[in-house]
Specification:
The complex is a heterodimer. Chain A is of the alpha/beta class. Chain A is built from 10 helices and 10 strands. In chain A, helix 3 runs parallel beside helix 6. By secondary structure, chain B is mainly alpha-helical. In chain B, 75% of the residues lie in helices and 3% in strands. The chains are: A alpha/beta, B mainly alpha.
Chain lengths: 241, 286
């Protein structure tokens, strides 16, 4: 497998508190990789560290083999890494159309088959109807669609998705997950942080399980048993109980 | 007639205050920075303009055309060299930094220009007036008001319809999320401050033409800008414009009641707005 984005012994944290203790992670072009783990395991922190939202050493994150760790978030977007942040983080007071336009106007240099607003609307037709609506008036699921659309319009080669199913109705979650293969079909790699373990397993080719800032399990999503996952998820001490 | 004249005077005065307030509203809206040097920058630009007119022998409109780009350059530099280091969720560092800079600027201006009051010769335009119906309206205040309206409308259009305006509104809504879609916040901020201080080039020229300026005058201009922005509602461009009008009219009517009451009347209206509608007249409740 060719590696597109990888981390090497990545350590990161907030202030004096260290949340990640040496993470080795890798993803190839067009691949879907899930990150699972309990609350506070460090999944979101890993995405934030990759995106340049937390200070990390340059050689801890590499893209196409080049060190990019700690680069400012807008530089990461320019190099082809985008994020669908936890909590959606849309631009309040701006319409759906404007939220998407900000992203496409600051996108990485387009290569291959770049995303257009039109294609995002084809992916999520409801957004076309709501194009002139301020984003704060959308439902949670529609807001998540805007957030994903915004991520895609950054023309990423790697899209980091942080809990995109959180707080959404099961039907909406299914609707959103159904479009993900169309994203990876373009060669975009997907990193999915997901609470729902079985959903994560189904949607990904490989998965990593994090526990207290360390990777406790990694492998092909189809080959890993539920027992292995729960041991990795809760820790060995818990598994012995 | 007496009162209508007062209101017209007030609106014309409001035109000048609007030029102070626009930049302050812009900077507060996007960065949550209260720029305490705002008034001192007006004075600095005015003094530069007066010296330019003196040394180069250029007229007031050439001074205006020179001060706007000088203001923009000063604003850009101010943001890049200083404010970008202190901008953040906590408003205190930027407040302290600009407060310190304000004192330093006033003293520096005192050294260069001394404490004398100066003004910019306007070539007779200060005395010219036109008859509108039963009223005589000064040509200069009219020009000031037209400029203020055009500046407000122009800035509003930039914010609404341009790529830069969208990136600025995005950064204003959620700066980290804006960075996550490729917006460089520090560049957006530097341009915002350049625009804010560039607009002060207009304010400085007109202030120096209609009245006198001295190095220690900045804090007064700051107060008017601040009051106009608060009355209109923080962070809204047309709100700042309307706030400036309300402030101008309050002062003018106050002057009609009693010449000593003019400035105070403005402060009273400002306090009344703070007490009754602290989010400002135009701000929607979030």
């Amino acid at each position: 497998m060719t590696t597109l984005l990888s981390t090497h012994g990545l350590v990161a944290g907030y202030g004096d508190m260290r949340a990640l203790h040496g993470i080795d992670f890798a993803i190839g072009p067009g691949e879907t990789v899930a990150l699972i783990g309990a609350n506070g395991a460090g999944k979101s922190t890993l995405l934030r560290a990759i995106m340049g939202l937390l200070p990390v050493a340059a050689d801890m994150v590499t893209l196409d083999g080049a060190p990019v760790g700690g680069a400012a978030p807008h530089r990461m977007v320019q190099s082809g890494v985008a994020i669908v942040p936890e909590g959606r983080r849309l631009f309040a007071g701006m319409t759906v159309d404007e939220n998407l336009r900000v992203a496409s106007e600051h996108a990485a240099t387009p290569q291959g088959t770049p995303w257009t607003q039109e294609r995002v609307y084809n992916l999520f037709p409801i957004l076309r109807e709501k194009a002139r609506t301020p984003v704060e008036n959308l439902s949670g699921g529609q807001q998540q669609m805007v957030s994903i659309g915004r991520g895609l319009l950054a023309q990423p080669r790697v899209l980091l998705c942080d809990e995109i199913s959180l707080g959404l109705a099961p039907r909406v979650v299914r609707e959103i997950y159904e479009v993900l293969p169309q994203v990876t079909g373009q060669g975009t790699a997907l990193v999915l942080v997901e609470q729902d373990v079985s959903l994560a397993q189904r949607a990904s080719q490989r998965l990593y399980c994090l526990l207290e800032g360390r990777i406790t399990l990694e492998g092909r999503s189809g080959d890993i048993s539920r027992e292995d996952i729960s041991a990795a998820y809760f820790g060995a001490s818990h598994a012995l109980d | 007639m007496h009162w209508i004249e007062g209101i017209v005077q007030g609106i014309l005065l409001g035109g000048l205050y609007a030029q102070y307030a626009l930049g302050m509203a812009l900077m507060f809206g996007v960065m949550k920075i209260v720029n305490v040097t705002h008034g001192d920058l007006v004075i600095l630009l005015a003094l530069i303009g007066i010296s330019l007119a003196d040394l180069a022998g250029i007229g007031p409109w050439s001074v205006l055309a020179t001060l706007v780009p000088i203001g923009a350059a000063i604003g850009w530099l101010l943001q890049r060299a200083m404010l970008n280091r202190v901008v953040g969720n906590d408003p205190l560092p930027s407040l302290i930094a600009t407060f310190g800079l304000s004192i330093a600027l006033q003293n520096a201006m005192l050294v260069v220009w001394s404490a004398n009051t100066r003004s910019l010769p306007g070539g007779g335009i200060q005395q010219a007036s036109v008859e509108i119906g039963p009223l005589f309206v000064g040509v200069l205040p009219l020009i000031v008001l037209i400029c203020a309206t055009l500046l407000t409308g122009g800035l509003d259009a930039v914010l609404r319809f341009t790529r830069y305006g969208r990136s600025l509104r995005a950064a204003s809504a959620d700066v980290e999320a804006a960075a996550m879609v490729g917006v460089n916040p520090k560049a957006v901020y530097a341009t915002a401050t350049a625009i804010a201080v560039g607009i002060l080039g207009f304010a400085a020229t007109f202030q120096a033409m209609r009245s006198t300026v001295a190095p220690a005058d900045g804090p007064f201009q700051l107060i008017y800008a601040f009051e106009a922005v608060i009355i209109g509602g923080l962070g809204s461009v047309w709100g700042a414009f309307t706030g400036a009008m309300i402030l101008g009219v309050s002062q003018a009517i106050g002057f009609r009641i009693n010449p000593g009451f003019g400035i105070l009347a403005g402060h009273v209206v400002f306090l009344a707005v703070l007490a009754i509608r602290p989010q400002g007249i135009f701000q929607r409740k979030s």
